[in-house]
Design brief:
alpha/beta; Creatine Amidinohydrolase, Chain A, domain 1; 2 domains; 4-stranded mixed sheet; binds manganese (II) ion
Length: about 350
Amino acid sequence: MNKQRIDRITENMKKAGLEQIIVSSTASLYYLTGYWVEPHERMIALYLDTSSRAILFGNEIFGLNSSPDLPLICHRDSDNPVKDLAEAVRPGELGIDKFWYSKFLIGLMKLRNDIVPVQGSGPVDLARQMKDSDEIKLMRNNSRINDQVMGVIIDMLQEDVAENYLASEVNKHFLQKGADCEGAQLVCFGANGADPHHNSDSTVLKAGDSVIFDIFTPINRYWCDMTRTVFYKTVTEEQRQVYELVKLANETAISRIKPGVLISEIDKTAREIITQGGYGEYFTHRLGHGIGLECHEPPDVSLASDIPLEVGMIFSVEPGIYLPGKFGVRIEDLVLVTEEGCEVLNQYPKELQVVG
Ligand SMILES: [Mn+2]
């Protein structure tokens, strides 16, 4: 158990008026216990209360161990998975992890009609969104690796190369540099780039295409995530104009980041620039997302996010313009909020590039 992190979460629980919570998401459990368990349909749950009492409940197949600071209660596949947990919880409000399956919650409620389930991820999310020094070190390093892979992959652009071939090359280079697994890398040529989540397919590269590389991976459990857009052989006036607008939105939003500023203001800054440039309706998604043990985690970086920036937050700044049937441009960096402003974790250049 990570004592410091448990203490922060206990503090957050007290502030939220929550006396007991259940933590079940893979990333949150890893954050607190060091165990990385992907339970799939089986059950794992960490019970925590404000006196820092912690009990781990899990299927025996997970191979977990009991320890003095974290007693373990195992069940087998043939047991009711929530039976032991039902004996441990106290009556009243019980905070539930947002990712806990309803089948377990409903099972627990059947055994204990004196509990009142409430949203219970807040205390852990609040702790996780402020990265500590170990996490910052890892994420800085991982973004450095992302910069290197971006350089390698942009150099591989040539006539008739396919999106999915380049996506597999991205994975290959990430794995060589220590990535935990392969991912669905986004490589989008020309009109495919107008879909922000286009899946790399067999489309081949042609002169005049915009090329979006949105590449990401976990390395030692922590994610990096960066997007660059370049142009192959030629660039039109419209492509150049859209690119410069997105770059300005990215850079201006980053320049406004400092502790105390509302996150919604950062989104608004980028959105206003793109709107003033005449492309507001084509910036179809939020500005960014928190990142850490999950590629998308709190804080949400959108107009709806009325919480102030705090030192230690790491999130993406990724404005984009998507012109259906034509092309798309997105530029994404990860930033770390610091006392003075922010540190941009990605260093691959953002100047407009025409390659090939
Ligand atoms: Mn992203």
